[in-house]
Structure formats: structure tokens, C-alpha cells
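Tutorial, part two.
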Amino acid sequence: MVIVEPALLRDRKDFVVGRTDMRGHLGRMLDPCGNTVLVCLGGSAVVSIYSTDRVFAQGDVTNLYRDMLPRFVSVSADFECFYCVMDNDFGNEVWFDIPPSYFEMLAATPVLTPSGEQRHMLDMWVRQFEWMCSAGGGIHAKQMVKNHVQNMLLSIDNELRRMTVTPQRVFLDKGYEILHRFYRLVTDHCR
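Running the prediction step on this input gives:
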């Protein structure tokens, strides 16, 4: 497995952000560490998630975990994506307050295509994210990044709840369903 951003482990960081064309990762299984958020900034790619090829085009967003077995199959000449790779501990901090409905949706629809207005907001989200991770975040960068990722995911959850068609609940196997139920119990009773 190849890590999108090796500095995460090498420098023992909580998270690393940047931009990539993913050409160095083609055909190789990605290790999303604790979690990796990707936003397609230009071009398109074919990404295998849960062993199914999916189009990942400009404006799309995805959140990758190890159990998704993510692998970039191909990328267009103009492909570029923003990434935020989080280590396990920081990823757990971020995801603890996210409702289980988000993770049900993620299993059913791992690549999300926002509407026009949502795409504009996502572009602003990426710009704010990059600012936070530069000098803009200062000593509060970790907390700001945690809140920023949570805000995006909660916004996605809200938008999906407003949709007239709710994604069908999908579980890959019994173990995944048991794990999901455990996380639901933890989030419902450990606040």
C-alpha cells in the first residue's frame, strides 16, 4: 500500500494537506491512514472503491478508509485533487461526532457529486483549508482543521437528509454491520 502523503508518518503529523495528480499512485492500493478526504479540482480519474470502478471528476469529493480498498486506476492529463490525510488518532477525533447516517451514506455512495452551489462552497472550503494549514492557522491549526472537516461532513449529512431519495443502506458484510452498530452505540451513549 502506498500513502498519499508519506510526511504524515515520517514527520509524525496529525494531518497533512496538499494537491496531487496521483500519477505516482496509479494501480497501487492506497493507504488512507486514519482517513483521507479528496476533492477533485480538475480533470477526472477512475478510482476503485470497494473493488468497483467509479468516476471521480472535477468537483467530486470522497472520504477514503482502509476497508474501502481504494486504488486509482487511471487519471486524465489535467487531473488534480486536494487531499487531507489524517492519522488514526486525529481521524478518530474528527469522526467521533459525525452521525452514523453519514457512514451509511458513505458505504452506499463513496463518491459525491455536489450541485453547482455546493461545488462553489466546496471550492471555498478547500481554499479555507489550505489557508488554515499555512501560517493562517497558527497554534490553533489542529482544532481549526478538525472543526473544518466536521463542518463539511455535517453539511453533507444535512444535504443528504434533505434529498427526496435517501441512499439505500448498504453493508458490505456482517462484520461491517456489527462494527457500524457498535459505532452507533458509542456515538449515541458516550457524549
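Residues 141-162 form the longest helix (22 residues). In part three we will examine how such features are distributed along the chain.
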